[in-house]
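can u pls check wat happens w/ T5A
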Amino acid sequence: MTKLGQFIVVEGLEGAGKSTVIKAIQRELEAHGHELKLTREPGGTPMAEAIRDCVKHDWQDEIVTEQTELLLMYAARSQLIENTIKPALANGIWVLGDRHDWSSLAYQGGGRQVNLAHLNAIRELTLDGFTANLTIYLDINPKVGLSRAAARGELDRIEQSGLAFFERARETYLNLVKNSDSAILIDAEQSIDKVREDVITAVRQFLGMTE
Ligand code: T5A
């Protein structure tokens, strides 16, 4: 019988270094012989990528409501989970995700402060208990993260949400890590090399438990 794949997610605010560490994790997992599928959220399937374009862009003077943003994030997630992540895991392929459900809890729940009962109802409908095996949370002061993101170019619609939004999102992430036994916090304000080193140590520990 095929051994199930594992789902590892990297989370964090803008500019925390997710894309940067994902390359290092990929190398590590492949060196251990794991076949790997990389995903990003929102996105990762043709339809979910179209939703990504929708949520990231400005719509001239049409306001994107908080409810629309929330529903689109979970619509994209549902497409990705059912069409890509679950089939990969069932075939023994490991999945490495650039963001997942915690991003919605942090950004829509914490940042936008959407109604939590509604958020949880949509989560239950979409996830039905599905969850990552390991979440690596890169913790960064939003001022530092946003300045890294700004150095790369113009900020998109969500990135323009303001400092208080990102402070609430960070607070939510910190609470999620504190209350999880499958997540690890990495200080993302360290040098890139030190962040990578800490992340790889965490991944090796996880591999020790699963292999
Ligand atoms: N969103 C997403 C929601 O609101 N709800 C949801 O449910 C989901 C899934 C996605 C947007 O959607 C929102 C969150 C986002 O706003 P995105 O383009 O995927 O959009 O945004 P991010 O994931 O935030 O992508 P970023 O590229 O901004 O962040 P990364 O990947 O964390 O950062 P990275 O690795 O590209 O690094 C950024 C820069 O910093 C440098 C890098 O070289 C790079 O230039 N850097 C460092 N510099 C100094 N020291 C370090 N330690 C550094 N690490 C990286």
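The helical segments are 18-31, 46-56, 66-90, 101-111, 116-127, 142-152, 163-178, 192-210.
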